[in-house]
Amino acid sequence: MITSLQNPLVKQLRKLQRAKERRNQRLMLLEGTHLVEEACAAGMPLVTACHTTAWQQTYPQLWSVLMQRAIRVELVSEEVLQAIATTVHPDGVVATAERTLGSAQFMSPTRAVQLGVALETIQDPGNLGAVIRTAAAVGVDGLWLSVNSVDLDHPKVLRASAGQWFRLPMTVSGDLSRDLQMLKLQGVQLVATVPTATLTYWQVDFTRPTVVLLGNEGGGLSSALLTLSDVAVKIPLAAGIESLNVAIAAALVLYEARRQQSFTEVLPR
């Protein structure tokens, strides 16, 4: 059992709490039973897994999976696990995985898109994780994230996604305008969410292939993406309300789009 905070592995894993170190080590930090379980279920190879005695006794089946899935599995003290984790009350297990392996996030450029979502300058990891969770629930074909957003593999993003991070095709776009322009050339409609738009989101035809564009609450979408979009829509708000959480906005528009698309799928030919 590892009990010392000065252990080289412990020092290495503690560094992963910082974005720079996650990039340098090319590792992502998976915290908690549910997230580790979802990673294993999605077939994601794990590099290291650290767990406490109590956790092993509570989850013997998942521990057996970790022994097969992870390159290295270590029993650690409660104090060590607390030091590794970013959460205040970790539940007994933390694992790492390579950033470039085992995730659906690396989406093929030629992937067919019936419904997708593009996010620009999203800064709150909880919001991003919630959008990912919603997008996966809706069954979108892909998610594009601008490079100036919060890290896609931020620990809080992973946790807020409730494990759906591993199941949703995603990509971090170095040039979101270029990537969206390529989608337009493939016949995909770009629908921008804008508070001042004339149309409400349920007045748009979502039966054609569509990518919904969302910006952060403070700045909204850039002028470049607004210019590129085919249609702008708004979500009606009561007087005195400035904006909705981006995850709520995404849920409303994406579910309306899926409702329309599902309705057409069952119409008689």
TrEMBL record:
<dbReference type="InterPro" id="IPR013123">
    <property type="entry name" value="SpoU_subst-bd"/>
</dbReference>
<dbReference type="InterPro" id="IPR029026">
    <property type="entry name" value="tRNA_m1G_MTases_N"/>
</dbReference>
<dbReference type="InterPro" id="IPR029064">
    <property type="entry name" value="Ribosomal_eL30-like_sf"/>
</dbReference>
<dbReference type="GO" id="GO:0003723">
    <property type="term" value="F:RNA binding"/>
</dbReference>
<dbReference type="InterPro" id="IPR053888">
    <property type="entry name" value="MRM3-like_sub_bind"/>
</dbReference>
<dbReference type="InterPro" id="IPR051259">
    <property type="entry name" value="rRNA_Methyltransferase"/>
</dbReference>
<dbReference type="InterPro" id="IPR001537">
    <property type="entry name" value="SpoU_MeTrfase"/>
</dbReference>
<dbReference type="GO" id="GO:0008173">
    <property type="term" value="F:RNA methyltransferase activity"/>
</dbReference>
<keyword id="KW-0489">Methyltransferase</keyword>
<dbReference type="GO" id="GO:0005737">
    <property type="term" value="C:cytoplasm"/>
</dbReference>
<dbReference type="GO" id="GO:0006396">
    <property type="term" value="P:RNA processing"/>
</dbReference>
<dbReference type="GO" id="GO:0032259">
    <property type="term" value="P:methylation"/>
</dbReference>
<keyword id="KW-0808">Transferase</keyword>
<dbReference type="Pfam" id="PF00588">
    <property type="entry name" value="SpoU_methylase"/>
</dbReference>
<feature type="domain" description="RNA 2-O ribose methyltransferase substrate binding">
    <location>
        <begin position="29"/>
        <end position="103"/>
    </location>
</feature>
<dbReference type="InterPro" id="IPR029028">
    <property type="entry name" value="Alpha/beta_knot_MTases"/>
</dbReference>
<protein>
    <submittedName>
        <fullName>RNA methyltransferase</fullName>
    </submittedName>
</protein>
<dbReference type="Pfam" id="PF22435">
    <property type="entry name" value="MRM3-like_sub_bind"/>
</dbReference>
<comment type="similarity">
    <text>Belongs to the class IV-like SAM-binding methyltransferase superfamily. RNA methyltransferase TrmH family.</text>
</comment>
